[in-house]
Please model this.
Amino acid sequence: MAKVKLKIKKGDNVIIITGDDKGKSGEVLAVFPKTRKIIVKDCNVVKKAIKPSEENNRGGFISKEMPIDISNVKKS
Model:
């Protein structure tokens, strides 16, 4: 399988052009070329429930950035 080449790299600043966070900008934290998705800092944030564990005795909720399709952003 050929390696996928993307124009957006980790550390670039991007603007979100579609979706709930339209108009927001942020830094790219991670790029996933196989699925053509990226994670942008402070965009597409969801609350995730976590169970109590040895590291986190109480459990609760954490805020986490979720991946966005690369076609929904543009380089700024």
User: Anything to note?
Assistant: The radius of gyration is 15 Å. The CA atoms of residues 48 and 56 lie 14 Å apart. The chain is about 0% helix and 45% strand.
